[in-house]
Amino acid sequence: MNIIPYEPPMRQAALDLALRAWEPVFPQLKAAVPGFVYGAFYPEEWQKRQLSDLGKILDNEPHTVDVAMLQGQNGSETPQLAGWVCTRIHPEDSMGEVYILAVDPQFQRRGIGHALMDHSHDRARAAGMTMMMVETGGDPGHAPARHTYEAAGYQRWPVARYFKNLQ
């Protein structure tokens, strides 16, 4: 596996991978949050919102994205995109942030997520940051992500986010 900087020709593969990675998450998220909240964030299918949000990251801040490439997968000599990470730097807090982490389901549980996180940590250290942060959902669909972050040494910050329907 090689972790390399993202390039715009990888855009569609990165977006497709992210949708595959989050496909099992969104039905569980939808079941875990109030319907008016889910409907406000995803008035159409969740895929449309994700494609828009992730596309903006890839288009507007490609310098923050790195990709994991695997050689010779599925009998092919063509490198295959296995995952990607977006690392944001927040100098005002001396903090790096794993903003997006996506690993193709066919390559999950092979250390790719950990390697991408380590790469993100290295980026932040190189920028002089002294801590890292990552956010994820508290619902059952995000349990694998929470496990990954906790296994990497992240400590959970107790946060409560409440929503009220005003209609």
Describe this structure in words.
By secondary structure, this protein is of the alpha+beta class. The protein has a single domain, classed as 3-Layer(aba) Sandwich (Aminopeptidase). A hairpin with a 4-residue loop joins strand 3 and strand 4. The protein is globular. The model has no long low-confidence stretch (mean pLDDT 93). Keywords: Acyltransferase, Transferase. This is Acetyltransferase, GNAT family. InterPro entries: Acyl_CoA_acyltransferase, GNAT_dom, YpeA/RimI_acetyltransf. GO terms for molecular function: acyltransferase activity, transferring groups other than amino-acyl groups.
Short recap of the structure:
The protein is an alpha+beta fold and 167 residues long. The protein has helices at residues 11-22, 25-32, 35-41, 46-60, 112-126, 143-151, and strands at 2-5, 65-70, 80-90, 95-103, 131-134.
Number of strands: 5
How does CATH name the architecture? Answer: 3-Layer(aba) Sandwich
SS class: alpha+beta
Largest sheet data? 5 strands, mixed
First CA to last CA: what distance?
Answer: 50 Å
Q: Numbering strands along the chain, what is their spatial order in the largest sheet?
A: 1-2-3-4-5
CATH topology: Aminopeptidase
The unreliable regions are none
Share in helix: 25-40%
GO molecular function: acyltransferase activity, transferring groups other than amino-acyl groups
Protein name: Acetyltransferase, GNAT family
Keywords: Acyltransferase, Transferase
Domain N-acetyltransferase: 1-167
